[in-house]
Amino acid sequence: MGKPSVFVTRRWPNAVESRLSETYDTTFNRQDRALTPTELKEALIKYDAILPTVTDSLNAEVLDVASPKTRFLGNFGVGYSHICEESARALGLTVTNTPGVLSECTADLTIMLMLMVARRAGEGERELRSGKWSGWAPTHMVGTKVSGKRLGIIGFGRIGQEVARRAHHGFGMNVVVYNRSAISSKALAECGARQVDTLDELIPQCDFLSLHCPGGSSNRHLINAERLRLMNRDAYIINTARGEVIDEFALAEALEDGSIGGAALDVFEGEPIINASLLECGKTVLLPHLGSATLETRQAMGFRVIENLDDFFEGREPRDRVI
Ligand code: DGY
Q: How many angstroms does the Cα of residue 75 sit away from the middle of ligand 1?
């Protein structure tokens, strides 16, 4: 039997691409752009495995393929809400993700965003680069202190826990968590955190609110106009999870009418298209989905996909199977 045919939808770090090509009959999308639904459908007919990313919308329509050749989807990333679970199951696909290896870097970036938005780093940099800075002044670009403040975390998986740990041990923050299921007292104690039962209880007490729950239809617009109204007027929201968790129109309104202090976002509902009001607003820090973007992490993600791929084609249960 020949090598399994594997299609990689985007460019990967060189070391991972080389390792993959040693074992598999690999085709890379050398154009390194998001694939169209038609291209994804063609790939499903042509290859034994596809290794997609968040930019490949494998929705019900795309997965509506009569007799796919593909049996395995190895997602390069932990979030897989771009893959329709129901359709993947109906096609009998095995789907894996890459948990754990990106938690530290995503948590680092979350803390960076929290500091940036509170300390007005984006605004300050824009001012300086545009030649408008006229020098130090006691009231110039005064922000908000982060140390010792209260951080609310929505979703206490690996990334949420890493954020809590950094916030508590590094910045002496008081961490409060909302999670759909109960968290062990040991896990909470490690991060100096306590759990509350509802979002309505969590949101009003926070100086910072950071999102770490999965995306997808069940969490779409979890943070809507009503919940934004529960936030303190000087509180900040940070999103390094998935864009669809926040209703961006409601967020833009809340920023405009001053009902919240600011927003720091790494993810957007219609990536890479960004809501114009968020772009224009001085109280936002916006990054192009950089949560896991370090060479170490992207390599680790790629090698983890390969581990799962090897498991699948060598007849073992892939360690990170999600579907
Ligand atoms: C992840 O791993 O989920 C990142 O957001 C990239 O998809």
A: 9
Q: Which CATH number fits domain 103-286: 2.40.160.60, 3.30.930.10, 3.50.50.60, 3.40.50.720?
A: 3.40.50.720
Is 215 close to ligand 1, i.e. is its CB under 6 Å away? no
pTM for the model stands at 0.97
Residue 105's identity, in one-letter code, is C
| Architecture of domain 5-99+295-313 in this structure | 3-Layer(aba) Sandwich (3.40)
Residue type, 3: K
Atom of ligand 1 nearest to the CA of 53: 7
- The residue among 42, 3, 37, 44 whose CA lies nearest residue 22 is 3
Q: Which residues contact residue 38 at a Cβ distance below 8 angstroms, ignoring those fewer than 6 apart?
A: none
Instruction: Show which residues are catalytic.
Output: 242, 271, 289
Tell me the per-residue pLDDT of 157-189, one tens digit each, with 9 for 90 and over. 999 999 999 999 999 999 999 999 999 999 999
Residue nearest to atom 3 of ligand 1 (CA): 79
With a threshold of 0.90, tell me whether the complex ipTM lies above it.
Answer: yes
Residue 300 beta carbon below 6 angstroms from any ligand 1 atom: no
